[in-house]
# Entry
Amino acid sequence: MVPSVSRAVAEHSILTAELLRQFDTPGPRYTSYPTADRFSHTVGPAEAVRALAASSVDRVAPLSLYMHIPFCESVCHYCACNKIITKHHERAAEYLDSLEKELSLVVGRIGSGRPVSQLHFGGGSPTFLSDAELARVMTALGSAFRWASDSEISIEVDPRTVTPSRLAHFRALGFNRLSFGVQDFDPDVQRSVHRVQSFESVRDLMQSARELAYASINADLIYGLPKQTPESFARTMQQVGELRPDRIALYAYAHLPERFKPQRRIAAADLPGAADRVAMLGDAISGLLARDYRYIGMDHFALPGDALAIAKQEGRLHRNFQGYSTQPDCDLIALGVSAIGRLGPCYYQNAKTLPEYYEALASGVLPVVRGYVLADDDVLRRDVIMALMCQGRVDFEAIGAKHAVRFADRFASELGKLREMARSGLVELDDKALQVTTSGWFLVRAIAMVFDRHLQEAKERHGFSRVV
Ligand code: SF4
# Structure
């Protein structure tokens, strides 16, 4: 059974300075394993074509789709996404031309009419597209694929770019899930990150979304932003509680100005210190649990009736590049600049710049520039890490039987490290299973990192956000 985090929060035992000192080390979010920093240029269009051909063998297997729209009108200073800042909306038309070329190359390999169980529009800001442009993309996708009856069709919404009537248009196009970028409602914080959007506007949009019968509404929040204090963030959380979105993603801001240029506009002196970050996280979690939200896993909460909370309860949770999902693992086709897909054992990523992306498609070539083909050891470790991230439990016999290994022998050194975590109360360990404790859920990626064979190299690059 998945432990409840409320007890840990009540006891406040997990977020002690000692545990943070020991386990708050840089680490990945494990939306994939191996993580994208392992990708290499040995995977290109030819490997992607082969992987698409392999995927086409089972014509009834459902697919997941990811569509990347890179444009934003203005830059948020905390941004770590691959985006293009422009006010020139006419640039979208050229982009959509190339997206359609990419789509037709993909469909040429896998055949049309494959069922799709999940479609996600991310960015950038997908709502940068006009209503007509979004309709154009959905029409193209609709003629290439077949929507499964229960398909989840979601879009990231920048509240500054939509109106209730636009939400109605999205609904008519088939979207049934919305994810609002909220981050923080405090005016000082909003000004300091260059993203000003009123509580009232978000409230009205969420209200409209409910009236339009969207199946699930998500709000993204960030703690650790400049000018945030435990008091100001508590007010934001109170306002979010009033809006009562079905899902909440609560991310930690990772300040990496050397890697993400927009973050150089944030003065380090304006950032909350470690103690304030811990207080914000602890208070936010306590408040969400008190409002009956369920802790899904890394960064994510959902109301008990939401599909994600039900899947968690029933042990059916999955994790992919978009985060937690109710959909079983399936091939993920990624379309658009910088998008990352997965076909069987092959991860692949498209060109990160528009000129490269356009050039490949103009030559009739898939714009894949890098990727990774999983070895057997990666597949085994991916299963272990995803079991930890989704179920909080690894059953040694089940994993051993699936991969024809003896778990205790194969992971002898990892189990040694986990014994130290067991002494700290993050996991329980016996001959049969590894179980994340109530407290351990807060640091679950630190536990997953123990199984990450590639981590040593990744650590040297200092690229990941902190665990808390
Ligand atoms: S945070 Fe989102 S909306 Fe803001 S600049 Fe980055 S991609 Fe665009």
